[in-house]
């Protein structure tokens, strides 16, 4: 009986595992190999050069600038997005007058918050190009000028450009996590909130002593997803910012440098080396986050 079950399971798993090896693991292996060559395109014969591309990366100031930008986004994007999403989710689900029920119209607000997720990333980038227009007729600068101030170069000022990109990323992501955390909060029995409220717990205590511990697994998953998104951010930077990562490389990220070196300079081997570094950054972040945020599971 056990042998027949094993054959049945193996028969179902063989094709998916084979497809995973061909379309996922095989490209990774090819990328690692290309990273150790000087390949410059489909018509060129790659020459094996060992670790030269990685040695070159050590002295590439633009790449390490991109790494620093990714690290800033890696810290702030999950922190801001999850913080804002938790705040709004708590208001929608436990912010009613009774202290244990959601506010009136909470379903409508969830749809409203989720709306940016419907838009393609490239469309969001183009929209915010207009919002951040440095001229006085830009959406934000028209308000600035109306207040009697000079127009602000949100995307043309190297000191502000990366923070403007971060604002767009948070704006786009927060709606999804509002819905995700709202679903998690809705699964918490109302009796738990009611019992805590009867014992005299205020909204702050309800959030930190009840909601946050019971929602921890969902927050952990959200943190990992947002961290990976921060490392992989490309479209917003490439479409929205000057010089596809400017000005003066002030918004460039690793993914943008990979694309630039591969398809602008045709240095596919060097770009693959950057991709390998990005791969280990991503895997390392995910493993470290899951390890550090692991805690005893609370059943309810």
UniProtKB/TrEMBL annotation:
InterPro entries the UniProt entry points to: ABC_transporter_permease (IPR051393), MetI-like (IPR000515), MetI-like_sf (IPR035906)
List all membrane-crossing ranges: 71-96, 108-132, 160-180, 223-242, 262-288
Instruction: Give the CC-aspect GO terms.
Output: plasma membrane
Q: Name one GO biological process term.
A: transmembrane transport
Annotated keywords: Cell membrane, Membrane, Transmembrane, Transmembrane helix, Transport
**What is the membrane topology here?**
Multi-pass membrane protein
Compartmental location: Cell membrane
Cite the ABC transmembrane type-1 domain residue spans from the record.
67-289
Could you tell me which Pfam families the record lists for this protein? BPD_transp_1 (PF00528)
The record's similarity note reads: Belongs to the binding-protein-dependent transport system permease family.
The identity of this protein, by name, is N-acetylglucosamine transport system permease protein
């Amino acid at each position: 009986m056990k042998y027949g079950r094993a054959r049945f399971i193996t028969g179902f798993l063989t094709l998916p595992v084979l497809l995973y090896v061909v379309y996922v693991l095989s490209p990774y292996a090819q990328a690692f190999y290309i990273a150790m060559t000087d390949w410059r395109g489909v018509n060129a014969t790659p020459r094996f050069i060992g670790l030269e591309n990685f040695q070159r990366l050590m002295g590439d100031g633009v790449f390490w600038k991109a790494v620093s930008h990714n690290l800033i986004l890696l810290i702030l994007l999950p922190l801001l997005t999850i913080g804002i999403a938790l705040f709004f989710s708590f208001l929608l689900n436990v912010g009613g007058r009774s202290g244990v029920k959601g506010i009136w119209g909470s379903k409508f607000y969830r749809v409203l918050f989720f709306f940016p997720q419907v838009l393609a990333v490239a469309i969001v980038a183009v929209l915010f190009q207009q919002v951040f227009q440095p001229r006085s007729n830009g959406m934000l600068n028209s308000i600035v000028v109306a207040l009697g101030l000079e127009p602000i170069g949100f995307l043309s000022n190297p000191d502000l450009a990366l923070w403007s990109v971060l604002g767009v990323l948070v704006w786009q992501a927060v709606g999804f996590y509002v819905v995700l955390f709202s679903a998690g909060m809705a699964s918490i029995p109302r009796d738990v909130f009611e019992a805590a409220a009867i014992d005299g717990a205020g909204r702050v205590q309800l959030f930190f002593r009840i909601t946050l511990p019971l929602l921890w697994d969902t927050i952990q998953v959200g943190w990992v997803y947002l961290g990976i998104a921060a490392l992989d951010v490309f479209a917003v930077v490439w479409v929205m910012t000057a010089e596809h990562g400017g000005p003066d490389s002030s918004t460039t990220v690793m993914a943008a440098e990979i694309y630039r070196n591969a398809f602008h300079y045709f240095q596919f081997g060097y770009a693959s080396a950057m991709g390998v570094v990005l791969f280990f950054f991503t895997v390392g972040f995910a493993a470290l986050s899951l390890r550090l945020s692991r805690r005893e599971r609370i059943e309810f």
